[in-house]
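The following record pairs a protein chain with its ligand, (2S)-2-hydroxybutanedioic acid.
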Amino acid sequence: IFADMKVVIPAPIFHLTKMYNEDKFEKKVNLGVGVYRTDENKSFTIPVVKKCEFEVVNDPTLDHEYLPMSGNPEFRKVATELLLGPDCKALQEKRVAAVQTASGTNACRLAADFLAKRMKLRTVYFPMPTWENHMVIFDHAGFKQFKTYPYWHKKRRQIDMPRLLEALASANEGAVVLFHGSAHNPTGMDLTKKQWKQVTTVIKMNKLFPFVDTAYQGFATGDPDRDAWIVRYMASEGLEFMAAQSFSKNMGLYNERVGNLVSIVSDPKLVPALISELMMYVRPNYSNPPAFGSRVVSRVLGDKKNKEEWLKTLCEMTDRVKNMRKQLMQKLQDLNTPGRWDHITRQSGMFSFTGLNEEQVAKLVKEKHIYLTASGRINICGLNTKNIDYVAESISAVVKE
Ligand code: LMR
């Protein structure tokens, strides 16, 4: 029965990493997958996260018994508070249901399964462009109609607000609309508060269902509170919605798969029912989530001093990224690279949507050994003081050709 198997590429982003790893060229650069790197091009474990890992490993009271299907209660509490903030009315009124997931991807999938299979929702809107996996997740969950709302104005290299609002204004009641909470992937361009308010008005008017992917909370500004503004605003406006949380980027726990699915509902009585119904999709899928990463996050966020240390490191990481943005823009301008490059510093988070076309990207990959996605997205965290000249010169060269 396996006779017609063919080798496929299920995730182009991880294929780029494979190509990079196999490349023997000395000056090769990986600007593909969204992972933080130090100025020495090293993978980075946040010191306080490392400290908490040791504590978890050496804690004699912990064992390997199954977690509840809904996950580690302590983790769900601190993670949800990180997203919604301590003053959140919905939290105080106990109108929030939280379920631990295997990182943000799985939070998206659990929500999509529930919305498609239980709520019978059929239509989902994505920003154009969005993370390559979003559409696949909603498709696998059973959504039938996939629509996009314009997000990125290619020529102006900024958000296409009039067309975005127009698309959402034409969406029908009950459509799910996916938003990125902060540090939009791949464009690195977020809505202003004023623009978010306009979007929220349309959501209310058309009775749309917001789903907010907050995979980069803290990575846009270095401040997780600021990065959660839209989620907190929607909650304060009395909307019902769901949000996916991930601790891959902001705590660097990529391979531990630590996430949380947060649902805000109108009545506290609905919370136990909703959690139990979500379990109907957890049980036949992975049954219950892994414990280790959730215990680490609980220790980081549950202790004032640890949390402060984490916030400080997060700022250092985002400062390094901001500095790389400035340098890249400056160098491209100094090299008289045709076009405008100021969008690189107007964008935030890990990524810059450079505006490079597919042909230019292909040349960078093949001729310069610089790995980036076909969309022209680069991971700014892959830049450092040693490779930035090479990257700027290479980009400039392919643009001038
Ligand atoms: C990315 O966009 O590079 C990351 O979110 C990694 C992934 O899973 O795609």
